[in-house]
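hey team, just a heads up i'm posting the complex here instead of the shared drive bc the drive is being weird again. everything in one block, sequence lines first with there labels, then the predicted structure for the whole assembly after. its two chains so it's a bit long, scroll down
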Amino acid sequence: MALLEVRHLKKTFGDRAVLDGISFDLEEGGIKAIMGPSGCGKSTLLRCINRLIEPTSGSILFRGQEVTGRDTDVRALRQMIGFVFQNYALYRHLCVLDNVTVGPRKLKRMSRREAEGKALHELQRLNVADLRHSFPSQLSGGQKQRVAIARALAMDPAVLFFDEPTSALDPVMAREVAAVINQLHSENVTVLCVTHDFELARSVADRIIFLRDGRIRAEDTADNLRNHYDDHEIRTFFGPGAAPV
Amino acid sequence: MTFVDIIAALSKGAAYTVGVTVACIATGFTVGLAVAVIRRLGWRFAAPLTNVYLAVFRGVPMLVLLFMVFFGLPSLGIQVPPLAAMMLSLGLISGAYLSEVFRGALNAVEPDEILAAQAMGLTRWQTLRCIELPQMLRASVPGMINEFTTVLKYSPFAYTVGIPEIMKQATALVSTTMRGVEIYLAVGLMYFSIYWMLVLGVWTIERCFRVPGLTHR
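-- predicted structure starts here --
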């Protein structure tokens, strides 16, 4: 059974269908990337799955349980989905350690000592434990991204969502983030990653979902998308010359 | 009577001035914070109430409100002690202005941080308490200092309802000594000293909670 099964998901804003019948599965321990042009509904899809945005219709099964219903415990669902935002969204008034402990303390009711132990473990896993007393304004983009990932991991989520994790980073830091996602993959963490960065998608994802105008146009491996599709849109987006490989 | 004697005579009123100021600041801070939180949470039923409160307490002069409370309410059978009358007029006016200071500071909290808190599973209240309010209070310090200073400067109105604060002591002293220049100069110095103590107090608290990259001077 897939960890996440999305079926015929639709989201409309007024007359505009941002998501128009999206269906895909995400297996436990798998990594999928969602790519597509700006405005195609990638981020909306992530936000619909963890109910930050209410889907208009369709079904989302999380470990076999329907999570679009009104009686769904949305907060429990969100605690199972670690969300890493494009611009990190670290809490500016909290040091790194407190950024990572706030979830375990407030949501898992851990004591401060327990939460700090858990936070230090995650920060060490991401090689930023020595920054634990720094504040977000004192960190580089790559360090902020690592702290944001540690914050998400501290909740022991079933799956990690990345929303454009490298769009604000230079190529060196983007490769660092790719290495971190690959490290998580080797530790059997399930990941769904929205990105514009083909290099990132190719290096981390088992399969890439290509979204356009709210619909899935293709789902395949990076190499197949680049080399074996005749569809004009896919060739334009992934074909040789579209992005450096 | 030397200048030091004048200061000593006026200092009897200084405690009342500080007491009135602190009581009105405490009232204003509590009410202003409550109004800002209610508006932030978007409780629809409370919106008309907070709008009326803000309009009335920002639109009616302080002295009129004070007299309505202190001299008007007794005619309805409600006796209000002088300090309570100051808190219900100056304190609530200060609350109305502080709620606007807090509203501006709350709007300065990054929407992505609020979204991240909700994505994590925090409730709206937890998000407000753990993420928004701590940032809001830090960003509000300059506005709060302004408002606290205004409260101090309006505190001499307490004299009109019989609280023996600095101005009342000074007026009594002038009427017996006829040395207005020195006495009112001493009054000015005392208010200036209280003002500086107030500012230093707020700055000390601000320094304790300063966060790199979030608060600037």
